[in-house]
Amino acid sequence: MKQLIAILEGIGGTLRLLVRAVAFAPTLPRQLPRFMEQCYQIGYTTLPIVSILSFFIGGVLALQAGYSMESFGAKEFIGSLVGLSMARELGPMMVAILLAGRVGSAIAAELASMKVYQEVDALVTMNIPPERILVLPRLAAVIVMMPVLTIIANLVGWFGGAIVAHSVDFIALEPEKYFETLRRFTKFEDVANGLIKAEVFGFVVVLICCSIGLNTRGGPREIGAAVTKAVVVSLILILVLDYFLTQSLL
């Protein structure tokens, strides 16, 4: 019962934080430097690892598909499998998981430290709402950067699959055939559905990490516990939301 009450209190606190942050949305143009800094942290610094992982995920997909399809004489459809898998599922999912592990943990650690060492209380004393300068710019930045990261992940994954499909001896698929089937079977709505998932995943991850960070109590040990909790909760919610979004978008 206590755990259920704690979960409900956490959900209520997160929703209140969201409402308070959205209420300050008209002030966002005056916070352009903070917004740009968060875009840099969420987008630019995450881009290298997103690109590397996307390339090898696309390559692994091409290898697995080529191994299976070669025996059926259907290796020319490798492009369609890689294209749909990256666009609808693996692209947004991978970016969201990287966001939770890399950016979400940093957000939780920073805000938890500010809360534990009473910097958040100092902002409140100076009549500066923490939601306005600590939460709103991050939420706005993730809304802008998640589609960009996901599109780049898709493109890099597609090209990674093409390179592997062409260079591996037992596949040896020409890039023209690979991209022909990719274009034929991967529709705009598939990419759009993936971008919708990415937006929801990113928004929820940042909101959860901000909420957990700002509700931290205690000392340095609690900061570490808050970071762990933020990442674990974010990953669970990504998987749960992925199921329901996939079901609704099919």
Query: What is the count of structural domains?
Result: 1
| Global shape | elongated
Distance between the termini: 37 Å
* Number of H- or I-type helical stretches: 9
**Which residues form runs of ≥5 with pLDDT under 50?**
none
Radius of gyration: 21 Å
Structure description:
The protein has 250 residues and is mostly helical. The protein has one domain. It has nine helices and no strands. Helix 4 runs antiparallel to helix 6 and helix 4 packs antiparallel against helix 9. The longest helix is centred in the middle third of the chain and has 39 residues. It is elongated and about 70 Å long. The model has no long low-confidence stretch (mean pLDDT 91).
In short:
With 250 residues, this protein is mainly alpha-helical.
Write the layout of secondary structure elements.
Blueprint: H1 2-23, H2 32-44, H3 47-70, H4 78-116, H5 119-125, H6 130-167, H7 175-185, H8 188-214, H9 220-249
Helix pairs in contact: 1-6, 1-8, 2-6, 3-4, 3-6, 4-6, 4-7, 4-8, 4-9, 6-8, 8-9
